[in-house]
Amino acid sequence: MEELNQAFGEYMEAYKALDIPSKRKEIINATKELIVVFEQLATKDNIELQYLRSREINDLKEENTTEDDFLEAELVYLEVAKNMIGQYLDKKL
Hints:
Helix content is 71%, strand content 0%. By secondary structure, it is an all-alpha fold.
């Protein structure tokens, strides 16, 4: 576990050195990775998940996204992740 904590500390130091747009991208990517983990769990257990949909994530495709765009999209991704794990647990248990 100590090795994992050290690697995580290095990751956080690198994250802190990023500019704001890069930090936003890293947060969105980390949340998407979490969603992929839930998808993989469901696929492994042969569970079909439904996805929440929202147009707010489309704003991230624009070149000049605002803080509001980022926060709205991140909230959508977090809600998708929460919903997916809820569906998974409901069907698994």
